[in-house]
Structures are given as C-alpha cells and as structure tokens.
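In the current project phase, the collection of sequences with tokenised folds has grown. A sample record is quoted in full directly below:
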Amino acid sequence: MDPKVIEVTDAEIRIIRAALRHYLAEFGHEEADILRDVKKLIARLPEADASPKPTPG
C-alpha cells in the first residue's frame, strides 16, 4: 500500500490523537488487531507544538 500524505495543523494533530485514544478506549480484547493498528497509528503521529495556535476559519 502506498503511503498517503496530508498536511494538518498542530491543533488538528491534537484532535486526531485525542480521537484515536477515545476510539482505542472503546474496544475490548476481542478486537486485538484493531487495538494494535490504532496504537501503531498513534505512535506514528508527530508531536504537536505545546502552544496552541489559532486556525483561520
């Protein structure tokens, strides 16, 4: 599978990370493959800047 690239702001990275953690918390032991994949995805996310910047819009 070819990797896809999207550009996101630091605020969007924080939202994505929070959403994935919430998604992860909803699964039980029977979904071990999903848990593993979500954990890998969270680990690949870059760290967002500590200081939130306003997004236009």
